[in-house]
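Lesson 9: reading folded outputs for more than one chain in a single document. The general rule is that every protein is listed as its sequence immediately followed by its C-alpha cells, and records are never interleaved. Here is the first one.
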Amino acid sequence: MNITSAKDKNSTIKLTVELSDLEMDKYLNNALEKLSKQINVKGFRPGKVPLEVAKQQISPQYLLAQAIDLALPPTYMEAVKQEKLEPISRPTVNVITENPLKYEAIVPIYPEVTIKDYKKIKLTKAKIEITDDLINEEIKKFQKYHAKFQDVQREAKEGDRVEIDFQGFDEGGAILDGTTSKNHPIIIGEKSFVPGFEENLIGMNLNDEREFTVTFPKDYFHKPFQSKLVKFKVKVNRIEERNFPEIDSDFIKKVAGKEMTIDQFKKEINDNLIKQKEFEDQQKLESELFELIAEKTSVEIPEVIIEDEIHYIIDELKDSLAQKGVNWDDYLKAVNKTHQDLHKDKHQEAIKRVKLRFGIQEIFKQEKIEVSDKELEKALEDENKIFESMNYQPKLNEIEEMKLRLKNKLKMDKLVALFT
C-alpha cells in the first residue's frame, strides 16, 4: 500500500492511499465471502452458497462498492498510524479510482492556537450585599407560594386569581389561531399574559363580559403576532381572593422543613441569597471571560469541526423546542426559515463556540490548570450530601456524568480565578 501525506488548509492533512492489485483482490474476496452468506440461491442452503456461484449472482459494481466499504476503515487507520497523525474528527474521503482503490482523506488535526495578550485580562468580582428588603422579598415569594385562594363576589382586582374564557380576533374580525381558551386561570398582575391584557380584567365581576384591544410587543416570540393589534372578547367565570399566610412558626416550619426562629429563618435566607448571588456573579464572570477569550483566539479550524458544531447547535435547538412541545416544522414556518437557512445562520455562532473551546484548552495547557483527585473527591462528597438529603442513590452512569461535570466546573472556577 502506497501512502503519502501533505499539509492542507485549515489544520488538515491530505492523505493519499493507493492499494496494489493484490491488496484490492483481498478486499474483493472478503466482500464476496460476506455477500455469499447473505444471498439466497435456489438449490443452496442460506449461508452455504459457493463463492463462484455467488459471484455470478452479484453485480460486479455492487461487489466493488462493498469491497471499497471494507477497505476504507483499515487502510485509513493504517495510514494514520504510519504518518503519526492524531485526528480530532472524522475524515473527508474522496475516491479517485475504484479498482485498485486509490483515495484521498482530508484528516482534521489539532490546530495551532494563539491567544493574544490573554494574561492581561482582568475581571472584577461583584460586591455582594444582602439587604433586609431582599430578604423580605424572598419571604413574600414563600407567602405567595403557600397562599390560599377563596371565592369572592366582588369586582376583580390586582392579585386576584380569575378563571376566564377568551378569544382573539384580527382587525377584520377573523378568529386568530392560538388566542382561544376556556376557564383559563390567571393571577392579575403576575404579567403572565401579553402586556395590557391583565389590566383590562380589573373591575370585572363574575359573569361579566368585556371587549378590549391589545397590541402585541414588537419582539413577541411568535413572529406573526409581533406589533399586531388584537381584539379580545373575555368572560369572567370565577374570582378568587389570595390570602397570604402569617409569618409564624408553622409557616417557617413548612417552608424550611424544620423548626427555627424568625431570626434563624432570615439568616438561612441570607446565606442562600449569598450563594445565589455568588453563583450568578460566577456565571457573569465566565460569560465575560468567554467573550474575551473567543475574541483574542486565533485558530485555523477544520471545516468538518465547524459542520459538526452547526449540527450540534441545531440539535440543541430541536431538543429545546421539543421540551416545550413545539413541532420543528412549525418552528421553521414561524421564523420563515428553511433548514438550509438555519444551517447558514448558525455558521458564525459555531465558529465562535469552537474558537472558544480551543482557546480555553490552550489556556488550561499554558497555565497547567488541572483538578487533583483530592479536589474532585471533596466536590463529590459535597454533591453526595445533597443526594443523601433527598434520600436518593445515584446510578453508576449518573456518578460518572457527575464526576465529569464537577471536574469541568472546578477547572472553570480555576480559570475564572486566574483573571480575578
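And here is the second record, again sequence then C-alpha cells.
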Amino acid sequence: MCKLLGMLLCVCCWIHIDFFAIANVECSLETKSLLAAQREEKLSDVAHEDEAGDDAAKRARFVARSAQQVMRENAIPGMAVGIVAHGKREMYYYGVASRKTAQAIDAQTLFEIGSVSKVFTGILGGYAQAQGKLSLADTVDRYCSELVGTPLGRVSLMALGTYIAGGLPLHFPATVTTRETMLRYLREWRPAFLPETHRQYSNPSVGLFGYLIAQALGESFESVMENTLFRLLQLEHTCINVPQAALGRYAQGYSKQGKPARSTQGMLTAEAYGVKTVLPDMLRFLEANLDASSLNHEMQQAIRTSQTGIYSVAPMTQGLGWEMYAYPFSIDTVIGQAERLPFAAQKTAAPMSLPADVFLHKTGSTNGFGTYVALVPSKKAGIVILANKNYPTAARIRMAVSLLEHVLEEN
C-alpha cells in the first residue's frame, strides 16, 4: 500500500513538474516572439530614421556642391541657402561675411536683398488697401498734392507699383538728392508711353508707390515697415536701417569687381531696395507667401493682392513685386526675361489666366549683394539664396531652380 501511494505521488509530481515546464516553455516562446517583434519594430524605425538621415545628408551634399560651384565660379565670399518644403525648413551656410575678418556666415548674418524689397513694398500696398486707407486704383494726386495737374498725378497707385506709369527711368538722375528736387523732377517728367501700355522697370516708380502708401498710413516708410509690416510677418531681425547693435552682423558686400560695397541711401531707395534681413526671417517670409492662414485677415488679403496678376508681358505675368509664370516653365525663358526686362520697355497685355501651378520669383541686387527668391505655392515649396556679392542673375536662377526641382522630386 505504501509503495502504491509512493508511486502515485511520483506520477502526480512528474505531471505537475511537466505541466509547469510546458507552461514555462510556452511562456518563454511567447516572450521571445514578442521581443523579436519589438526588435524588428525598432530595427524598422532605425532603418527609417537612417533612410531619412541619408536623404537629408544627400540633400545637404547636393546643396553644398551647387552652392560651392556658384561661389567658386563667381568669387562669392559667402552664401546662405534656405529651402521650405511641406512645412519643413532647411538652412545652409557657406563662406564668410567679410574677407577682412573671416567671420563665418550664419543664421544671424544680415544681407541686403535689393529689389526683393519690392515684394515687401507691394504687400504693404495690399495691407493699406485691406485696412481701407486707400484703393490701389486711386490716382497719385490724391496722396501727393504737389503732383495735381501733372501727367504722373493722373496715374494710378497700382500703375506705379507695377512699372506701367508711362516710362519712369530705372534710377533718378544724379541731381535728385532731396524731397524738393525729387518733386520738381516728377512734376516736370513727361511719359514716353500712355500709362498702362508699356512696362518699364523703374526704382523711382516703386519707390514713389511705397512713399505714398506710407503717407496714406500716416507714417514714414521706414517706420511703417519696421514697426508694422515686419512685426505682422513675425520677422524679428529684418530692418530698413541697421541698428547699431546689429552692425557686427551686417555682412560686407562685394561688387562685381570684388571691391567692398554696400548700398547707399538716396531718394526712395528704402522703398525700392532697402530691406536687410537674415535667412531664417526670409524663410518665414516665404512660408507666409506659401500659406498666409496663420496671419491676420488684413495680411492674408495683402499677400493675395501681391500675388494677383495685373498684366502680362508674355509669358510673364506681373504682380505687386512678384513675377509669375505657369509651372512648369522654360528656365531659359525665365532667365532671358529676368535679364532683359529691367532694361527694355515691353508692351503690356491683359493678365494671362494662370493655372493652379504657378511659379513666383524675384531677383534682387545692390552694389555688393545678390539675392533670389522663388516659390511654387501649389507644391508648398520655396527657396531663397542670399549672397554678399553682386553676381549674374542667370547663375542664381539656375542654381535655385535646380535645388527646388531636386527637393520636389524627393517629395
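What the second record shows: DSSP finds eleven helices and twelve strands in the chain.
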